[in-house]
Write a structure and sequence with these properties.
alpha/beta; 2-enoyl-CoA Hydratase, Chain A, domain 1; 3 domains; eight-stranded mixed β-sheet
Length: 541
Amino acid sequence: MYTSSLDLLVDELRQKTAQTQLGGGQKKIDDQHRKGKLTARERIAYLTDDDRPFVEIGLFAGEGMYAEHGGCPSAGVVAGIGYVSGRQCVIVANDATVKAGAWFPVTAKKNLRAQEIAMENRLPIIYLVDSAGVYLPLQDEVFADKEHFGRTFRNNAMMSSMGILQVAAIMGSCVAGGAYLPIMSDEALIVEGTGSIFLAGPYLVKASVGEDVDAETLGGASTHCEISGVTDNKYPDDPSCLDAIKRIFDKLGHTETAGFDRATPAPPAKAPEDIYQLLPVDRVKPYDMLELIERLVDKSEFDEYKPLYGKSLLCGYARIDGWAVGIVANQRKVVKAKGRTGQAPEMQMGGVIYGDAADKAARFIMNCNQKRIPLVFLQDVTGFMVGSRSEQGGIIKDGAKMVNAMANSVVPKFTVVIGNSYGAGNYAMCGKAYDPRLMLAWPTAQMAVMSGASAAKTLVQIQVATMKAKGQPLAPDEEQALLQKITDQYNAQLSPYYAASRLWVDAVIDPLQTRQTLSEGIAAANHAPITRPFNVGVIQT
């Protein structure tokens, strides 16, 4: 059986996934079990419906970071979108196998991203709390800034005012400022014997006021359910506490939806597995993006918008798992654009956005907003076209028009980085800065200001010129060694896992998971009615 290079990348993804899901390792997992506790992933598996998917967010957050502190797999927290008693929701579970669930800087970023997803999509959120609080050696990077630990509690308050249900289960330690998260939720449950919540633990109480008190008396289940009234109810073990959450969700009222259209789902007519052979791993090689689209959409039906104009971008309507979507995708094969009268036809390079394509995409995006159709961006882009012909043709204003329409869209946007995601092309195709509801990457994705080869050559030229100005010119072999070193460093930063570790993307996925992941994202977005009118303001013409 033929195995493509993409097969190998997907296999690497599976291996990295399995390793990361072990959290702090088997020994730490066994320690949890000896304490009578489920792990974060076991709690989520028990809580969520068996027949519905759990879309994990930020699995690779923290990947390769904090090596001097022993690492922080998955940022020490498991988060995602799942179903509890048939109701879609966001779930956040501290992983006590990783530094006792302590908050690293990336942990705060991941928790805030989970809350952002709940707020954008008006989804209920469940917190399964088991955390030692801020990781003190890095407290200066997680405590005081706007997007640090404290923002979590600000979001608690904001979600409460928005009418978004928050349910917290205290299933382990809950200390100091972290104590506010469950108690600012609508319902706070606690597990007897293992759950505890207090502003200051026994050691700090002893040091501060000289009082000797054990953790259970200070902040255990009996104290807070029978004396302080801080928590609502106590349960003998993890499963019974999680069962209580299921009962809460079983009785939730229903709210207004955005009304996005969904027909009966149908699989693609063309085999999705063909993507493994159709997509070259070499990011320079051309391919026909239309062939990939036809393996992602229902019945392989794609109603293309202005197919003969602006051909370096594909725009059109389709359905993904029944949901109506508008797709904007970079065409990666060379196309020919007809010239105006007196001008020769222009051969347009794949993956580059030309003025006519940007103009088409802007109009298409505005049409999707008019029709209340969610937008899906498929990125494999090296940037906008440069040169005198493009500048004189108004590439800047055409690009500005596209960015304006995309940035001001009121319909939900979803982005999949299939290949390249460079420079201003990342922005125009709805990069992270433009609030996609989900930003996903295939294992072939590369994100940076420019390609590794271009960046390395530029950086080497700068260093060679600097050394020459100092009277220290480099020999050819030294220059080549420097080029290789910079290329290797830059290429490491192009990896989709580098992007995922910093939450520039929400997940790295197997291409065959794309349909289901996008479907769940649109289902989540459908919980949030569109209340803001679409207005692009002053647009370039």
